[in-house]
Amino acid sequence: MQSHYECINIEETQEEYLNLISEIMSIRKRGEKPLAFVRTYGCQQNVSDSERIKGMLYKAGYDFTDKPDDADLILFNTCAVREHAEDRVFGNVGALKNIKRKHPSVLIALCGCMMEQEHIAKRIHDSFPFVGLVFGTHCMHEFPKMLYDALVDGKRIFKRDNDDNNIYEGIPIRRDGTFKGFLPIMYGCDNFCSYCIVPYVRGRERSRKPEIIVAEAKEMIQTGFKDICLLGQNVNSYGKGLEPHTDFASLLREIDKIEGDYWLRFMTSHPKDCTKELIDTIAESKHISRHLHLPFQSGSDRILKQMNRHYDREKYLDIINYAKKKIPDISLTSDIIVGFPGETEEDFEDTLSLIKEVGFTSLFTFIYSKRKGTPAAKMDDPITDEEKSIRFQRLLDTQEKIAAEHCKGMVGNTEKVLVEEKNSKEGILSARTSGNIIVEVKGEESLIGTFQKAKITNARNFILQGEIIKD
User: Fold this and answer.
1) Helices 83-94 & 118-127, crossing angle to 10 degrees?
2) 22-71 tens-digit pLDDT
3) For 60, which of 21, 74, 132, 378 could close a Cys bridge (C-beta 3.0–4.6 Å)?
4) Distance CA 36, CA 422 (A)
5) What proportion of the chain, given as a percentage, has pLDDT over 70?
6) Taking residues 3-12, what's their average pLDDT?
7) Nearest to 107 by CA among 62, 142, 160
8) What's the per-residue H, E or C state across 365-413?
9) H helix or E strand, kind and range, residue 466
10) Residue 222: Cβ within 10 Å count
């Protein structure tokens, strides 16, 4: 088990290479400024990683474009959680061949979880010779040096590290948003669920120091962020290996003390580490959203054991019922995998019954995707794809009815909402409650990024409609 790691500030080391890159690109740029195109696949952690990659590029003199054909650097930050995500990456990388042919000076780079898998890196090396830079999740802090070397030498660079011994601080950030943002608190995972590739590509758990996280949260709040989401593969186990000892509930309480008008969220939580102290912390807080995302994956104890989840149905329901008791207005969401190898009709019915018993606001549902290198990939899987699809649809139909009833029960409530963006409907804005439920409201675009009060007037399945109440 990971027990100790170093926190290292690399700001000065990076600065040297970022300045050298700036000098090179001032000559080699194709337009007025060197441009980078960055595409992110996958989870919120990947989005957060891309914000740090953009931060490094910005300090190296790059600006950003949404047109790969205009870019001096094209970078894909990849996801390995499901096969579909990998297929999309390969398809989109193949399409870059024509850009490289038209603009030989463009550098094409791939990073992220896919690149930590040896068979993927080999396929990129052998089948996509126009890709010049490939690096894994553990090497992100070395990006300035790798980029400099690629620009100077023109040789292909492939790097995977598996460095679980350090956390690197001092990496610049260029955030995608101005009022909603991600704040990583830890990296890696020690759970080794049998279906999951994450521990193999993200490494073992390492937690950032609490004082660094609190300082970053304070800076975000002071610069106008209204919705901050703490990130980790398993935030509930935050603090393991840190000295002096701390835990996730303690970290939440420290951030919650920061003055300001904001919401604090977190994901993802693992049920085996979700304590009653954590629920009490949410209940007693001023800023933590009334929303708990707690993936249960399957309602069958037999399948949960095969998944190596380290809890059973009873333990899961115990923490859910405690949360409902302590926080009556809590919004509950979860992840579910349908069609895990060997899942029987009885196992699936256990999942459906758990969904009905809990009454989730919404669910993130997935059909099992085999991941090379995981224990589940070697398990017998006699269920046909057709049967998995039928079960998947039954699950969606069940949850749709539950969500509709939940939202219907909110009609007439007055809710604090954060207005997030223009809706596709003319004159309509999309807002979100503390419980992470979308509310459509009429309003001017100037309201985007502000908290408002909205009276809920109507419910459509899992989306609410409301009217903004003027003070």
Assistant:
1) 20
2) 999 999 999 899 999 999 999 999 999 999 999 999 999 999 999 999 99
3) 21
4) 27
5) 99
6) 80
7) 62
8) EEECCCCCCCHHHHCCCCCCHHHHHHHHHHHHHHHHHHHHHHHHCCCCC
9) strand 463-468
10) 11
Query: Mean pLDDT throughout 181-185?
Result: 98
Q: In sequence order, which ranges of 223-310 are alpha helices (DSSP H)? A: 248-256, 276-284, 301-306
DSSP class of 239 = T
| Contact present, 413 and 437 (Cβ < 8 Å) | no
Q: What is the dihedral of CA 194, 200, 203, 205, to 10 degrees?
A: 0
DSSP 4: -
Helix (H, G, I), strand (E, B) or coil at 21: helix
First-to-last C-alpha distance (Å) of the chain: 54
Q: Which residues pair with 418 in a beta bridge?
A: 432, 451
Question: How high does pLDDT run on average in the chain?
Answer: 95
pLDDT tens track for 291-316: 999 999 999 999 999 999 999 999 99
Length of the chain in terms of residues written: 471
Q: How many CB atoms lie within 10 A of CB 322?
A: 16
- 347-349-355 Cα angle (round to 5): 110
Give the closest residue to 190 by CA, choosing from 181, 179, 203.
203
